[in-house]
Amino acid sequence: MLRTIAALLALATPTAFAYTAAELATKNVEAKGGIDKIDAIKSLRLAGTLRINGDTLELALVTLVKRPHSIRSDATLQALTVVQAYDGTAAWQINPFQGRKDPERMSSDDAKGFAEDAQDFDGALVDYQKKGYTLDYLGTEDIDGTEAHKLRVTRPNGDITYVYLDPDAFLEIRTIDRRIEHGVPNETITDYGDYEKVDGVYIPLSREFWTKGSSDHQKIQFDKAQANVAAEDTEFQFPASRPATPAK
Predict the structure, then answer these.
(1) Which of 14, 23, 38, 184 is the most buried (most CB within 10 A)?
(2) How many other β-carbons are positioned within 10 Å of the β-carbon of residue 88?
(3) DSSP E strand boundaries for the chain
(4) What is the pLDDT of residues 108-139, one digit of tens each?
(5) CA–CA distances in Å: residue 93 to residues 100, 113, 232
(6) How confident is the model at residue 9 (pLDDT cuts 50, 70, 90)?
(7) In the chain, what are the domain boundaries?
(8) Does domain 20-235 have CATH number 1.20.1260.10?
């Protein structure tokens, strides 16, 4: 009899703890602090470090985000600063490490990631319906020893992001972005950690990302986060006072 009861409980457990995609999205929003507190953050400034080349190079990093769709990152090493920005319409960059001191516009394919980062800086699950995303729950998958909830987010342009949520905290621990860039499939994996509250909203201050198949992991550690900072539109727009270099 005990074996029969145990078997019944084992069969019942998956059903008892099953979720729909919509329910997990709601739990994710609630875990972050709730939609009201999320929407109350109109801009966000994050400062920290970016480690590249197997942790051999460390750059000072400042990322500025402004609703609804603007983002800018400045990474500095030895008095040289790489600037990459998106103003909701187009992306541009300045890369002195390639001998280019003037801003140059990025192609639409190169701008894809910036557009998604700007729109989803709260996370892809927040307001996914308003963004026109389709959401599917794919069960659980082991992520470094954690049975994470796996969701597939499909964007209107066909690009896909897989979101992995911690089963207890319902916060992102990993995302996998699959995009077509320059006609070639590209897959970027990002791990998240070190969640801290900023104006009532949990934000991951630690991120590690890499291209699938690559051993070159890039690591970001933010040590300062400020919400609702001053952020002028001109900080994200292509500098009008400089000549435009066409994207390549």
Answers:
(1) 38
(2) 18
(3) 43-52, 57-66, 70-77, 80-86, 91-94, 104-105, 134-143, 146-154, 160-165, 172-181, 184-198, 201-211, 218-227
(4) 888 888 888 888 999 999 999 999 999 999 99
(5) 10, 13, 18
(6) very low
(7) 20-235
(8) no
